[in-house]
Design a protein that fits this description.
Distance between the termini: 58 Å
Radius of gyration: 19 Å
Order of helices and strands: EEEEHEEEEHEEHEEHEEEEHH
Shape: globular
Strand order of the largest sheet: 13-14-10-12-11-16
Helix content: 25-40%
Protein name: Non-homologous end-joining DNA ligase
Number of strands: 16
InterPro entries: LigD_pol_dom (IPR014145), MtLigD_Pol-like (IPR033649), NHEJ_LigD (IPR052171)
Keywords: Ligase
GO molecular function: ligase activity
Strand content: 15-25%
Organism: Streptomyces sanyensis
Largest sheet: 6 strands, mixed
Length: 291
């Protein structure tokens, strides 16, 4: 029998709680749901008001993994959706994870959470910039940290504050709160940053996605600033054999150049110690303006 749980006044059917989802650590679906319930005060401000895309892995990362934007069949009527017109579906809508019941319901589907750089009430008007630092072996996290520190200084020169989080995989994400700015302008500025990084650190930084050029370098992926793109939401679990989290990190940790891998069980203590290191990204008054 599927247990029924009440979450903030909503009745939820939570299924297969003993099912192992992350095989390297034996992490169960029940433990995943507990993580999101505990992390809700930190993750919800980063999900709220943004149309969410789900990367689902209901049988773990070794099973079927699929990306979905449309609300799945059986979505409760109380789950908020917002219109997100697409060229192939002008009437498309996406889920907005605004509250704890919606978060727990969505986590029960076993999903990574991904969000765009804009809010549902202002599509295509970015309130943050993101740079995804992706190392090509043998480069790794230490090289990503070096590039992140250069980018932080470069952004500061333009009057912009940068914040860092792990990707939850092998790289880093840099995020910058912005006053609302058209996505095309943010995309152009982000690309210029990546190009400047390659000019300043030619043996380390790459601004193009070309696979053949990537070994030993850090690809500064600026493309996620396009209005149609999304990025892994802060605090989301990733669809990997271990339950790694896309976790905010301090600049002191970046300066130490790793290791920066955080798992589900690490996060309660980090949140108690640091709070939400990315809180400025959710403050409407904290955004800087592009030069």
């Amino acid at each position: 029998m599927t247990p029924i749980t009440e979450v903030a006044g909503r009745r939820l059917a939570l299924s297969n709680l003993d099912k192992v989802i992350h095989p390297a650590t034996g992490t169960t679906k029940g433990e995943i749901l507990h993580y999101y319930a505990v992390a809700a005060p930190a993750i919800l401000p980063h999900l709220r008001h943004r149309p969410a895309s789900f990367l689902r892995y209901p049988d773990g990362p070794d099973g079927q993994v699929f990306f979905t934007k449309n609300p799945p069949p059986g979505t409760p009527e109380w789950v908020r959706t917002a219109p997100v017109p697409r060229s192939d579906d002008p009437g498309a809508r996406q889920i907005v994870v605004d509250d704890l019941p919606t978060l727990v319901w969505a986590a029960n589907l076993v999903t990574e959470f991904h969000t765009p750089q804009w809010r549902a009430d202002a599509p295509g008007l970015a309130d943050r910039l993101v740079l995804d630092l992706d190392p090509g072996g043998p480069a790794g996290l230490a090289e990503c940290c070096e590039v992140a520190l250069w980018l932080r200084e470069r952004l500061a020169g333009d009057g912009l504050d940068a914040y860092a989080k792990t990707s939850g995989a092998k790289g880093l994400h840099l995020l910058v709160p912005l006053a609302p700015t058209p996505s095309r302008e943010v995309s152009a500025y982000a690309r210029a940053l990546a190009v400047a990084g390659e000019a300043a650190l030619p043996g380390l930084v790459l601004h193009r996605m070309t696979r053949a050029l990537r070994p030993g370098k850090v690809f500064v992926d600026h493309s996620q600033n396009a209005a149609a793109k999304t990025t892994a939401t802060p605090y989301t679990l990733r669809a990997r054999r271990e339950p790694t989290v896309s976790a905010p990190v301090t600049w002191e940790e970046v300066e130490r150049r790793g290791p920066l891998v955080f798992r589900l069980g690490d996060m309660p203590a980090r949140l108690e110690r640091h709070g939400d290191l990315l809180a400025p990204l959710t403050d409407p008054g904290a955004g800087g303006r592009l030069p």
